[in-house]
Amino acid sequence: MSMQNKPQMVEAVMFFSERGICKEMLFPEFEALLDGIVNMPEFADQQVRVAFVLINPRLLVRAAVFFYLDFDENGSPDSGWNIPLRHLAERSGRGPDLGAGPIRLACRSQCPVSWHQMHLWDPSLAPGQNDLVLLRDAAKRNQLGLLVEDDSAQIVAPERLQMASEDKWHAPDPAKEVAEKQAEKINQEHRLKAAQLIRQQRLRISSLSQQHEEELAKLKLASAEENKTLQVQIHGLHLALRQQEDLNASLKAQLAVQADGIQKNREEMTQQLRALEQHGRTESDILRTQFDAELQAKIASAVVEYKEQIAIRDVELAYRNELDAQLQQEVERLKVERDAFASQGSEQILERLAKLGVVFVVYHPGAGHLTIPLQDIARYQDNPMAYAAAKCFVSEAQYRHWLAHYQKPDCEADLPSGGRCAMPIDRVDSPSRFVAGDSNCCARHKASSRLRTVS
To answer: Which residue windows are coiled coil (predicted)?
Structure first.
């Protein structure tokens, strides 16, 4: 083999999709893609997960950098993309062993350059869907047609073998030394593999911890915003209640003062009348007439005054009602605008999150963790229970009956005394296998239910 055909370390780029690695190319082809010489219409208007790998002549991965690449609607990559892949591959930390010793690994949770961390992603290390194993297998398949180094062992020619002299035949047993060296080598390999496995698990734990922290931060932010809104509403209700209580107390005080004044006047007039009755019938009649006239005048004056106050109150109340109606109309209009802006903003935010690769996952008993597509978000918000029931291929009523049984697996049969049996029974884990009146009853009531059905 000439020097020009000698295998060298090769730089390659591999594109990931939901099915695994969907496209492979050499780094010069990737540079041509970045320069706009070629396009990739199959990735139009998407954010794609990509891996930059170094492959040695034995088709083994030596370094990997996991990064994102955005494509526009024409399938052209982002013109502002400028991640130094070679620099990250040279400066990154150690990763798992993919056949040629620990690789150099750069990803979101292990990035030597902090300001590029947001543009990287963490590979999945879960059994059965390990992205590093996909890279290793893709390199072994050699669809890029790389030159492979022949690493077969060189056989020593018999004529090159030399026999030791007789005086050295009784030297220490070389087989024992070879066995000890092999044992030491195997022990060292086991230690290295254990250390690599520990590093791999630490990397996975770091990735999961970061995901959990991001989810927790989002939940805390949503909770804080909702709490702030509720506090504002509560404060407004407390203020309105306090104003109404002050107004009621003021009116009660005014009525009490006026009632006291009328009662005092009546008592004074009654005392004068009794005094005048002692001086004779005529004077009593005159005084009674005068008393009635004065009392009627005072009552008329008080009535006029109260009517004026009532008229003033009516005007104020009409003005307040009109103002309340205007404010209510304004509130309704602002609510409509807020809902419109909120719906537009939420849809745009959800679309942007979906483009960034964010998936919406919820957990429902019986259905497990459900990944909700963007187009199903509204339907899920309207009725999460019906959505989960549909995923379990049962009706919503059956799913609700099963959920009550799943959360508290005891007999729901009614006793003659009016209570429930409540005897613990075996839990039915699948909603589709749950039968109301049978799965949620103990053996005794289940048998009686069957007898009633037969009869």
So the answer is: 180-279
